[in-house]
Amino acid sequence: MLLKRYVLDSRISTGTAPEFIDAILQLGEARCSAYVCFTNVHMLVEAHTNPGFQEVLNQAAIAAPDGSPIAAAVGWFNQGQQQERVAGMDLLPALLVEAAQRGQSVYFYGTTGNVLEAIVARAKRELPTLRIAGTHAPPFRPLTPEEDEAEVAAINQADPDLLFVALGCPRQENWMASHHGRVRACMLGVGQAFHVYAGLERRLPVWARRLWLEWAYRLWLEPRRLWRRYLVTNSRFVYIVLRRTVAQYVGRPAHSAVRYE
Fold this sequence. Notes:
This protein is of the alpha/beta class. The chain has one domain (3-208). The chain has twelve helices and nine strands. It has helices at 17-29, 41-49, 51-58, 68-76, 88-102, 113-126, 145-158, 171-178, 193-197, 206-210, 214-221, 223-249, and strands at 3-7, 10-13, 34-39, 62-65, 105-110, 131-136, 162-166, 186-189, 258-259. The strands form two sheets. Strands 4-3-8-7-5-6 form a six-stranded parallel β-sheet, with helices on both faces. A three-stranded antiparallel β-sheet has the order 2-1-9. Strand 5 (105-110), helix 6 and strand 6 form a beta-alpha-beta unit. Helix 2 (41-49) packs across helix 3 (51-58). The longest helix is centred in the last third of the chain and has 27 residues, at 223-249. The radius of gyration is 18 Å and the shape is globular. Pfam families: Glyco_tran_WecG (PF03808). Keywords: Glycosyltransferase, Transferase. InterPro entries: WecG_TagA_CpsF (IPR004629). This is WecB/TagA/CpsF family glycosyltransferase. GO terms for molecular function: hexosyltransferase activity.
Protein backbone atom coordinates (compact mmCIF):
# COMPACT_ATOMS: atom_id res chain seq x y z
CA MET A 1 0.00 0.00 0.00
CA LEU A 2 1.07 3.56 -0.67
CA LEU A 3 -0.05 6.23 1.73
CA LYS A 4 -2.12 8.95 0.06
CA ARG A 5 -2.12 12.56 1.20
CA TYR A 6 -4.40 15.38 0.17
CA VAL A 7 -3.18 18.16 -2.09
CA LEU A 8 -6.11 20.53 -2.39
CA ASP A 9 -8.95 18.00 -2.77
CA SER A 10 -6.96 15.35 -4.61
CA ARG A 11 -5.47 12.27 -2.98
CA ILE A 12 -1.83 11.95 -4.03
CA SER A 13 0.17 8.78 -3.40
CA THR A 14 3.46 9.12 -1.55
CA GLY A 15 6.65 7.11 -1.34
CA THR A 16 9.95 6.59 -3.09
CA ALA A 17 10.27 5.73 -6.78
CA PRO A 18 11.21 2.08 -5.99
CA GLU A 19 8.11 1.82 -3.79
CA PHE A 20 5.94 3.09 -6.64
CA ILE A 21 7.51 0.61 -9.06
CA ASP A 22 6.94 -2.29 -6.70
CA ALA A 23 3.34 -1.27 -5.96
CA ILE A 24 2.52 -0.98 -9.66
CA LEU A 25 4.05 -4.36 -10.47
CA GLN A 26 2.12 -5.91 -7.58
CA LEU A 27 -1.09 -4.59 -9.18
CA GLY A 28 -0.02 -6.15 -12.47
CA GLU A 29 0.85 -9.45 -10.83
CA ALA A 30 -2.52 -9.53 -9.05
CA ARG A 31 -4.21 -9.53 -12.48
CA CYS A 32 -6.79 -7.05 -11.23
CA SER A 33 -8.28 -4.13 -13.14
CA ALA A 34 -6.73 -0.95 -11.75
CA TYR A 35 -5.35 2.33 -13.04
CA VAL A 36 -2.48 4.66 -12.22
CA CYS A 37 -2.45 8.42 -12.80
CA PHE A 38 0.70 10.52 -13.02
CA THR A 39 -0.58 13.79 -11.59
CA ASN A 40 0.71 17.13 -12.83
CA VAL A 41 -0.47 20.72 -12.30
CA HIS A 42 -2.83 20.59 -15.28
CA MET A 43 -4.59 17.54 -13.86
CA LEU A 44 -4.84 18.98 -10.35
CA VAL A 45 -6.40 22.21 -11.60
CA GLU A 46 -8.76 20.25 -13.85
CA ALA A 47 -9.78 18.14 -10.84
CA HIS A 48 -10.31 21.25 -8.71
CA THR A 49 -12.76 22.74 -11.23
CA ASN A 50 -14.35 19.51 -12.52
CA PRO A 51 -15.96 17.22 -9.90
CA GLY A 52 -16.19 14.38 -12.42
CA PHE A 53 -12.47 14.46 -13.09
CA GLN A 54 -11.82 14.84 -9.36
CA GLU A 55 -13.56 11.49 -8.89
CA VAL A 56 -11.49 9.93 -11.68
CA LEU A 57 -8.27 11.04 -10.02
CA ASN A 58 -9.30 10.06 -6.49
CA GLN A 59 -10.46 6.59 -7.57
CA ALA A 60 -7.06 5.76 -9.08
CA ALA A 61 -5.24 2.94 -7.34
CA ILE A 62 -2.14 5.14 -7.44
CA ALA A 63 -1.89 8.88 -8.16
CA ALA A 64 1.83 9.60 -8.48
CA PRO A 65 3.17 13.17 -8.00
CA ASP A 66 4.41 13.58 -11.56
CA GLY A 67 5.10 17.31 -11.44
CA SER A 68 7.65 18.95 -9.13
CA PRO A 69 5.02 21.43 -7.85
CA ILE A 70 2.76 18.51 -6.93
CA ALA A 71 5.56 16.78 -5.02
CA ALA A 72 6.37 20.02 -3.22
CA ALA A 73 2.70 20.66 -2.44
CA VAL A 74 2.53 17.33 -0.61
CA GLY A 75 4.82 18.93 1.96
CA TRP A 76 3.08 22.31 1.93
CA PHE A 77 -0.24 20.74 2.92
CA ASN A 78 1.07 17.91 5.10
CA GLN A 79 3.37 19.32 7.78
CA GLY A 80 6.46 19.46 5.60
CA GLN A 81 6.50 15.82 4.51
CA GLN A 82 9.30 15.24 2.02
CA GLN A 83 8.16 13.76 -1.29
CA GLU A 84 10.21 13.28 -4.44
CA ARG A 85 8.83 13.72 -7.90
CA VAL A 86 7.70 10.43 -9.47
CA ALA A 87 7.37 11.17 -13.18
CA GLY A 88 5.82 8.91 -15.77
CA MET A 89 8.75 9.65 -18.10
CA ASP A 90 11.11 8.16 -15.51
CA LEU A 91 8.92 5.27 -14.37
CA LEU A 92 8.08 3.96 -17.86
CA PRO A 93 11.63 2.74 -18.65
CA ALA A 94 12.17 1.61 -15.05
CA LEU A 95 8.95 -0.40 -15.10
CA LEU A 96 9.93 -2.06 -18.37
CA VAL A 97 13.26 -3.13 -16.88
CA GLU A 98 11.61 -4.54 -13.78
CA ALA A 99 8.80 -6.18 -15.78
CA ALA A 100 11.40 -7.98 -17.88
CA GLN A 101 13.12 -9.22 -14.73
CA ARG A 102 9.85 -10.41 -13.17
CA GLY A 103 8.47 -11.97 -16.34
CA GLN A 104 5.52 -9.60 -16.61
CA SER A 105 4.05 -8.65 -19.99
CA VAL A 106 3.28 -5.15 -21.28
CA TYR A 107 0.99 -3.58 -23.86
CA PHE A 108 1.30 -0.11 -25.42
CA TYR A 109 -1.92 1.71 -26.31
CA GLY A 110 -2.11 5.17 -27.92
CA THR A 111 -0.26 7.73 -30.04
CA THR A 112 0.61 6.60 -33.59
CA GLY A 113 1.90 3.53 -35.34
CA ASN A 114 5.30 5.16 -35.94
CA VAL A 115 5.74 5.99 -32.25
CA LEU A 116 4.74 2.47 -31.23
CA GLU A 117 7.18 0.94 -33.70
CA ALA A 118 10.00 3.04 -32.23
CA ILE A 119 9.02 2.03 -28.69
CA VAL A 120 8.99 -1.66 -29.54
CA ALA A 121 12.30 -1.40 -31.41
CA ARG A 122 14.04 0.17 -28.41
CA ALA A 123 12.47 -2.24 -25.94
CA LYS A 124 13.52 -5.28 -27.98
CA ARG A 125 17.02 -3.90 -28.40
CA GLU A 126 17.58 -3.06 -24.73
CA LEU A 127 15.32 -5.63 -23.05
CA PRO A 128 15.24 -8.76 -25.24
CA THR A 129 13.49 -10.78 -22.51
CA LEU A 130 10.62 -8.29 -22.12
CA ARG A 131 7.29 -9.84 -23.06
CA ILE A 132 5.43 -7.37 -25.30
CA ALA A 133 1.83 -8.56 -25.42
CA GLY A 134 0.77 -6.08 -28.09
CA THR A 135 0.39 -2.51 -29.31
CA HIS A 136 -2.46 -0.47 -30.73
CA ALA A 137 -2.85 3.08 -32.03
CA PRO A 138 -6.57 3.97 -31.83
CA PRO A 139 -8.04 6.58 -34.21
CA PHE A 140 -7.99 10.22 -33.12
CA ARG A 141 -11.77 10.35 -32.67
CA PRO A 142 -14.35 8.90 -30.29
CA LEU A 143 -14.81 5.17 -30.81
CA THR A 144 -18.17 3.63 -31.49
CA PRO A 145 -19.41 1.23 -28.79
CA GLU A 146 -18.69 -1.65 -31.16
CA GLU A 147 -15.13 -0.45 -31.80
CA ASP A 148 -14.53 0.02 -28.10
CA GLU A 149 -15.77 -3.47 -27.28
CA ALA A 150 -13.51 -4.91 -29.97
CA GLU A 151 -10.47 -3.10 -28.58
CA VAL A 152 -11.20 -4.21 -25.02
CA ALA A 153 -11.57 -7.79 -26.22
CA ALA A 154 -8.26 -7.59 -28.10
CA ILE A 155 -6.43 -6.22 -25.05
CA ASN A 156 -7.88 -8.87 -22.75
CA GLN A 157 -7.03 -11.59 -25.24
CA ALA A 158 -3.42 -10.35 -25.31
CA ASP A 159 -3.56 -10.60 -21.49
CA PRO A 160 -0.93 -8.03 -20.45
CA ASP A 161 0.06 -7.38 -16.85
CA LEU A 162 0.72 -3.68 -17.51
CA LEU A 163 -1.13 -1.56 -20.07
CA PHE A 164 0.61 1.74 -20.86
CA VAL A 165 -1.87 4.34 -22.16
CA ALA A 166 -0.90 7.51 -24.05
CA LEU A 167 -3.96 9.45 -25.19
CA GLY A 168 -3.19 12.86 -23.68
CA CYS A 169 -4.62 14.43 -20.54
CA PRO A 170 -7.42 14.24 -19.47
CA ARG A 171 -8.53 11.82 -22.19
CA GLN A 172 -6.28 8.99 -21.04
CA GLU A 173 -7.36 9.31 -17.40
CA ASN A 174 -11.03 9.30 -18.39
CA TRP A 175 -10.39 6.31 -20.67
CA MET A 176 -8.77 4.33 -17.87
CA ALA A 177 -11.56 5.15 -15.42
CA SER A 178 -14.26 4.18 -17.91
CA HIS A 179 -12.47 0.88 -18.60
CA HIS A 180 -11.86 0.07 -14.94
CA GLY A 181 -13.35 -3.35 -14.38
CA ARG A 182 -13.39 -4.10 -18.11
CA VAL A 183 -9.69 -4.23 -18.95
CA ARG A 184 -7.95 -6.96 -16.95
CA ALA A 185 -4.65 -5.19 -16.41
CA CYS A 186 -3.00 -2.41 -14.46
CA MET A 187 -3.47 0.64 -16.71
CA LEU A 188 -0.97 3.52 -16.56
CA GLY A 189 -1.60 6.93 -18.14
CA VAL A 190 1.88 7.97 -19.23
CA GLY A 191 1.13 10.44 -22.03
CA GLN A 192 4.21 12.12 -23.47
CA ALA A 193 6.48 9.42 -22.02
CA PHE A 194 5.85 7.40 -25.20
CA HIS A 195 7.56 10.05 -27.35
CA VAL A 196 10.48 10.37 -24.94
CA TYR A 197 11.05 6.62 -24.71
CA ALA A 198 10.77 6.31 -28.48
CA GLY A 199 13.57 8.87 -28.84
CA LEU A 200 11.34 11.39 -30.64
CA GLU A 201 11.57 14.03 -27.91
CA ARG A 202 14.52 14.93 -25.70
CA ARG A 203 14.28 15.74 -22.00
CA LEU A 204 16.07 18.49 -20.15
CA PRO A 205 19.12 17.56 -18.04
CA VAL A 206 18.40 16.49 -14.47
CA TRP A 207 19.71 19.78 -13.03
CA ALA A 208 17.21 21.76 -15.12
CA ARG A 209 14.35 19.49 -14.07
CA ARG A 210 15.27 20.07 -10.43
CA LEU A 211 14.83 23.80 -11.08
CA TRP A 212 11.25 23.13 -12.33
CA LEU A 213 12.15 24.21 -15.88
CA GLU A 214 10.67 21.25 -17.76
CA TRP A 215 7.38 23.07 -18.30
CA ALA A 216 9.23 25.95 -19.99
CA TYR A 217 11.03 23.51 -22.27
CA ARG A 218 7.78 21.81 -23.25
CA LEU A 219 6.20 25.22 -23.87
CA TRP A 220 9.12 26.14 -26.13
CA LEU A 221 8.64 22.91 -28.10
CA GLU A 222 4.87 23.26 -28.54
CA PRO A 223 3.86 26.89 -27.83
CA ARG A 224 0.58 26.90 -29.77
CA ARG A 225 -0.74 23.77 -28.05
CA LEU A 226 0.59 24.33 -24.54
CA TRP A 227 0.63 28.09 -23.89
CA ARG A 228 -2.76 28.10 -22.21
CA ARG A 229 -2.08 24.97 -20.17
CA TYR A 230 1.18 26.26 -18.74
CA LEU A 231 0.69 30.01 -18.47
CA VAL A 232 -2.99 30.14 -17.50
CA THR A 233 -3.25 26.82 -15.65
CA ASN A 234 0.01 27.26 -13.72
CA SER A 235 -1.09 30.74 -12.60
CA ARG A 236 -4.43 29.33 -11.48
CA PHE A 237 -2.63 26.59 -9.55
CA VAL A 238 -0.57 29.18 -7.64
CA TYR A 239 -3.72 31.17 -6.84
CA ILE A 240 -5.63 28.09 -5.61
CA VAL A 241 -2.69 26.92 -3.48
CA LEU A 242 -2.25 30.35 -1.89
CA ARG A 243 -5.97 30.64 -1.16
CA ARG A 244 -6.08 27.17 0.41
CA THR A 245 -2.93 27.88 2.45
CA VAL A 246 -4.48 31.04 3.90
CA ALA A 247 -7.67 29.09 4.69
CA GLN A 248 -5.66 26.48 6.59
CA TYR A 249 -3.87 29.13 8.63
CA VAL A 250 -7.16 30.67 9.76
CA GLY A 251 -8.41 27.35 11.03
CA ARG A 252 -10.10 25.55 8.18
CA PRO A 253 -9.98 21.77 8.89
CA ALA A 254 -7.31 19.93 6.90
CA HIS A 255 -7.77 16.60 5.16
CA SER A 256 -6.26 13.52 6.76
CA ALA A 257 -4.06 10.98 5.06
CA VAL A 258 -5.69 7.95 3.50
CA ARG A 259 -4.40 4.61 2.29
CA TYR A 260 -5.16 2.77 -0.91
CA GLU A 261 -6.13 -0.82 -0.15
